[in-house]
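EI: anyone free to look at a 167-residue chain?
SC: sure, send it
EI:
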Amino acid sequence: MKFFKTKDILYDKNVVNNDFRYCQNIIYLAKNKQGKTYVGETSTPFIERLKSHLRKKSTDFESAINRKNMDDFKWTILEDNLTDINERFEREKFFIKKYNSFENGFNMTKGGGGTKGLKHSEESVKRNRLAKIKYFEDPENKKKQSKASLLAHTINPEQAKEHSKLM
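SC: here you go
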């Protein structure tokens, strides 16, 4: 199994075969320097999935990997050509169990379809709350949200009534 550094996948076309960078319908593994792993599945090109991990910060894994320490992680493809989504989910579950990445890694679920039913830790709830507070301190972000809410309530007036009842 060959592992590649994050920056080599993203930036160095000479090091990484383009078939690896752009393969899709895969199960992949990320491993940090301490040996902690993350198993994921994607139907999109691998390079795009990797970029999305770097952009987001909604999971412990995405918080752990960022532009400053991205080369603390190495990546490999465990399986490819898994065009059937149910098969891909089953294989993801298999590899999460094999690499113990739910109990001792970065996976927040046992796999097979995302975070449905996930219960956030108190720490992640607090982190998300503080991020939202910080986001809405910016007047431009408040305007964007106000416009989006106005549009949503115009399209669906019942939503506005339900929201008012709830609040």
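EI: The first strand starts at residue 4 and ends at 5.
SC: 👍
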